TrEMBL record:
Heme b binds at residue 179. Its cofactor is heme b; Ca(2+). This is peroxidase. Gene3D superfamilies: 1.10.520.10, Peroxidase, domain 2. It comes from Cardamine amara subsp. amara. The keyword Disulfide bond applies. It catalyses: 2 a phenolic donor + H2O2 = 2 a phenolic radical donor + 2 H2O. Coiled coil: none annotated. PROSITE patterns: PEROXIDASE_1, PEROXIDASE_2, PEROXIDASE_4.
Length: 251
């Protein structure tokens, strides 16, 4: 269960007296899990983003569907189903924290802490995580489908989806840089490789030719739509600026 916190102003030292080792415990478990799963840090970062982008950072993405209680699982949203991952390590962190400070740390805050740790472990920046979030009591699959970005979304649609959260185009570009690590399922990109703009056999002409052939080899026509390819072909498990370099090279 994800405990509920009362109203409070967010603060980086929110748990300094009630659960002072929260970050150390989370870091230890993420470090341990990432040794057996190189994709874990990217999974956790995505999990936090997909939580925050649907009605705020309230941990609702962790809730399983419970129709009898009116809970629509966000996990079943098109953008999440079969691809959103990293739940196990969040569960492990929650269980460990319940042993030392039961009922204190919200699941929403665990996600925020875990995301910062994951980016840092992958070689990215570190930052002070503001804490004190309350956990949501419900989830909404319909809201998730409407709010979360999709690969085929136009710039206009993406700009609108970000503007709902008071994020501008600078934020859109910066946050897109998180695609510097992790994987993508072939089903997300197959139309750009084999059926661009509805033209069977045509590929997106903006993709660098050599890179296009590499992608076609990894995601062949008629192949598995759940097979995964690296988002960043250079350093797929590192949080760096190669994402933007690759864009400039049409890769």
């Amino acid at each position: 269960m994800c405990g509920l916190l009362g109203n409070a102003k967010l603060s980086s030292d929110f748990y300094s007296t009630t659960c002072p080792n929260v970050t150390a415990i989370a870091r230890g478990l993420i470090e341990q899990a990432s040794r057996s799963d190189v994709r874990l840090t990217a999974k956790v970062m995505r999990l936090h983003f997909h939580d925050c982008f649907v009605n705020g950072c309230d941990g609702s993405v962790l809730l399983d569907a419970a129709p009898e209680d009116g809970v629509e699982g966000e996990k079943e949203a098109f953008q999440n189903a079969g691809s959103l991952d990293g739940f196990e390590v969040i569960d492990d962190i929650k269980a460990s924290l319940e042993n030392v400070c039961p009922g204190v740390v919200s699941c929403a805050d665990i996600l925020a802490i875990a995301a910062e740790i994951s980016v840092s472990l992958a070689g990215g920046p570190s930052w002070k995580v503001l804490l004190g979030r309350r956990d949501g009591r419900t989830a909404n699959r319909t809201d998730a489908v409407a709010a979360l970005p999709l690969g085929p979304d136009s710039l206009e649609i993406l700009t609108f989806k970000f503007s709902v959260h008071n994020l501008d185009t600078t934020d859109l570009v910066a946050l897109s840089g998180a695609h510097t690590f992790g994987r993508v399922q072939c089903g997300v990109i197959t139309n750009r490789l084999h059926n661009f703009s509805g033209n069977n056999g045509q590929s997106d002409p903006s993709i660098e030719p050599e890179f296009l052939q590499t992608l076609k080899g990894q995601c062949p026509l008629g192949g598995s739509l759940t097979a995964r390819v690296n988002l960043d072909p250079i350093s797929p498990d590192s949080f760096d600026n190669d994402y933007f370099k690759n864009l400039q090279n049409n890769c």
